[in-house]
Amino acid sequence: MKTKVIRMKPGDFDREAVQEAGRIIREGGLVAFPTETVYGLGGNALDELAAQKIYHAKGRPSDNPLIIHIADMDSLEKIVTEIPEKARLLADAYWPGPLTMIFPKSDIVPCGTTGGMDTVAVRMPDHPLALALIRAGGGYIAAPSANTSGRPSPTRSEHVEEDLTGKIDMILDGGPVGIGLESTIIDFAEDIPTILRPGYINRQMLEDIIGPVEIDRGLIAADSGIRPKAPGMKYRHYAPNAELVVVEGAQENVQEKIRELAEEKIRQGYQVGIIATDESSDAYPLGLVKKIGTRKNEESIALHLFGILREFDDCEVSFIYSEAFNTPRMGQAIMNRLLKAAGQQKIQV
Ligand code: TXA
Ligand code: MG
Q1: pLDDT in the model for residue 231
Q2: For 157-167, what is the mean pLDDT?
């Protein structure tokens, strides 16, 4: 299949191209597009065959449900049977935005889209091009992140092209995304709403609007065998080709430990990568040191995490050592993705 790539500015996009992309979606084809979190791989959410094509293009297990992207609140009413009051409050506060909510699904949503579940995940993305595509595509776009299953989510069009060229109809390149980590997912099935996947909208931001919120135990005890409630969170994800280990503790101890680990591997003849920040990169004399961002602006760390993991895949390193990033607002989301990429390998110093 030939994949057409159309490049445009997110604020000033080519309306004709968006109409063409919308037509592809309505006819059952697949279009990758930018959102504020990561690039998505879109297909018509109400078309079971389109969902199958998405799973196939990504190489994704079909028990892992897709998020339906909508552009207005009326669309929500049609695909769910009930909207809890707390969900309405959160939608008022954070939609369009990086928040996905789980609802009981209505009959028009095929089981192929929800991985056989009777609930459906919905979000309204905060990106002009994404919203225009959803409208042009008929109102309901099922979209997982636009990466090959298991690889880091794409934060730039190049990442999508790397993974999906030849497998989908079109890629809309709207430039790099703004956040770089996937949306927060919240579920209302229990008395106290539960975060199934941490993201930019953190626990405090949710609690400010709806009161107490819990975090899925399967996420906190990620190595304990407790099953996470979002099926996708159980899979090993984002893993680079090299073995990745995260070192956590006081900054000086972390730097000393990473220097020691790097030196040992280099002495044994391996190439080593190090994930550092603008502040710490000079502390590592050996290894291929990459700066992920600055601790003065934690958003910069979130934004570059997936890109850095991909960059290391293009290098010959066998081991990667990363500092931990328990930053105040996005630390939970960043560490969730980083530790997943590391297969939960963490050294405490
Ligand atoms: O930011 C995002 O959410 C991006 C952009 C493209 O919108 N999308 C995204 O989709 O990250 P994906 O498919 O890579 O991740 C969706 C996650 C998976 O972990 C999946 O298991 C979970 O959402 N999920 C989907 N439907 C669910 C449901 N009904 N119940 C529980 N978890 C669900
Ligand atoms: Mg994904």
Answers
A1: 82
A2: 98
pLDDT of 278-302, one tens digit each? 999 999 999 999 999 999 999 999 9
Ligand 2 (ion): residues with CB under 5 Å are: 145
- The response to whether residue 102 sits with its C-beta less than 6 Å from ligand 1 reads yes
- pTM here is 0.96
Nearest CA to ligand 1 atom 6: 40
Answer yes or no: is the C-beta of 232 below 6 A from any ligand 1 atom.
Answer: yes
* 261 residue type, one letter: L
What token pair was written down for 338? 């980083």
Cα separation, 143 vs 121, whole angstroms:
11
Ligand 2: centre distance to CA 238 (Å): 9
Closest C-alpha to 180, from 13, 11, 347, 34: 34
Name 191's Cβ contacts closer than 8 Å, sequence gap at least 6.
none
